[in-house]
Amino acid sequence: MANITGAVPEINYEKKPVSQEQLQREVDYVRAQRILDFMLQNGLISLSEFNKITALNRKSFSPALAQIMPESR
Predict the structure, then answer these.
(1) How far apart are CA 14 and CA 25, in angstroms?
(2) pLDDT tens for residues 62-73?
(3) CA 29 to CA 24: how far, in whole Å?
(4) CA distance 27 to 47
């Protein structure tokens, strides 16, 4: 068995500039989700509605990390 303690894998990444438009979409997405969460917590929408609207928000706002976000609660 090989001992890999202390080994640090090499991570290659590419820096990509983020446009003002993308930053605004990210902010808008977070705001929309906070409102949705408030509505869910206060019984104004169901969990099913929350999940459906979240999916629509991801399509509308295209947040950068949408690919790794859970699909539903």
Answers:
(1) 21
(2) 887 665 565 656
(3) 8
(4) 23
